Amino acid sequence: MSEGQTPQDKKRAAGYGEGGVAPAMSVGDVAREAETMGASVSRGDILALAGPEPVLELRDLHAGYGAMEILHGIDLAIGAGKSLCIVGPNGAGKSTVLHSIFGFTKITGGTVITSGRDVTQLTPSDKLRDAKIAYILQDNSIFPDMTVEENLLMGGYLLNNQRKAHEAAEKIFAQYDRLAKRRRERAGVLSGGERRLLEISRSLIMDPNVLLVDEPSIGLEPRMIDMVFEILADLRDGHGKSIIMVEQNAKRGLEFADIGYVMVSGRVALAAAGRELLENPQVGRLFLGS
Predict the structure, then answer these.
(1) Residue 187 in contact with residue 151, Cβ under 8 Å?
(2) How many domains does the chain fold into?
(3) Contacts of 216 (CB under 8 A, 6+ apart)
(4) What is the pLDDT of residues 5-28, one digit of tens each?
(5) 266: in domain
(6) CA–CA separation, 95 vs 214, rounded Å?
(7) Residue 231, in any domain of the structure
(8) Bigger pLDDT: 141 or 108?
(9) Residues 101, 103, 105, 107: what is their CA dihedral angle, to the nearest 10 degrees?
(10) What is the mean pLDDT of residues 35-55?
(11) What CATH code is carried by the domain that includes residue 232?
(12) Is residue 43 within 8 Å of 74, Cβ to Cβ?
């Protein structure tokens, strides 16, 4: 979901519920009411949620596009093998947080820290290769005329030794039989869920520590959404990956996440355990359709 609004967006509910309920609030209404949530969360609160020795931190980050500042002093922290989901109204700056971590924005203040190292000014390629941060885009980013295997190997384009890329690909095929059966087929014939699996798997070739996941459920049918979240849970719980996610389905995202943030107007307005935010009446009314 983009940071901007379309006329169609204004006519429907915030889009965060499970569906099947008539819209009760416009996107504009949600944004206006979200503004009442209060001041930004303190850095101490952020660090307490992350636990000792965060694997990634944002410290007072100011960032945006061109002359427009979108993030106004964001603090964020996540520990190894933990998941964090960011929710909030359209235009809050959610995806801009991911863009800024990976190096797609103009950062005018603050720092991005991984394992104690300042990586603020690294390029996206350096973030992937050296800082072990991978970005999984919300848009369909596969190469439809290439095979599944060729798409997967594209994830290792920064490796000097392509043998390592092939070895990593074989491990992924061994783990995900759904991809292994179709390794020689054109990626364009895959279902939406299989394409999402391929995008996630491609990001693993470089063995990242942190996965930035933008709208993992977008455009998928419910059973495929279940599959994607099961894969992400396994990467977190079984492989120790840290996951920072923006998710349109706030209920599903917060159920998955160890930590939840609510962003409003470029700031973190609420931060708590994911389950705690699910039980927050204001969060429920604005973002969960309850």
Answers:
(1) yes
(2) 1
(3) 136, 196, 225, 228, 229, 232, 245, 247
(4) 444 444 333 344 444 433 455 556
(5) yes
(6) 7
(7) yes
(8) 108
(9) 70
(10) 83
(11) 3.40.50.300
(12) no
Mean pLDDT of 47-71: 96
| Residue 151 token pair | 């798409």
Whole-number Å distance between alpha carbons of 185 and 183: 6
C-alpha to C-alpha distance for 5 and 270, rounded to whole angstroms: 23
Q: Is residue 167 part of a domain?
A: no
The pTM assigned to this predicted structure is 0.86
**Distance between CA 262 and CA 251 in Å, rounded?**
12
Which domain does 129 fall in, by range?
26-145+200-287
Residue of 219, 170, 215 whose CA lies nearest to 193: 219
Q: Judge whether 104 lies within some domain.
A: yes
Decide: 215 and 2 in contact? Cβ < 8 Å: no
pLDDT digits (tens, 9 = 90+) for 196-233: 999 999 999 999 999 999 999 998 999 999 999 999 99
d(CA 235, CA 216): 14
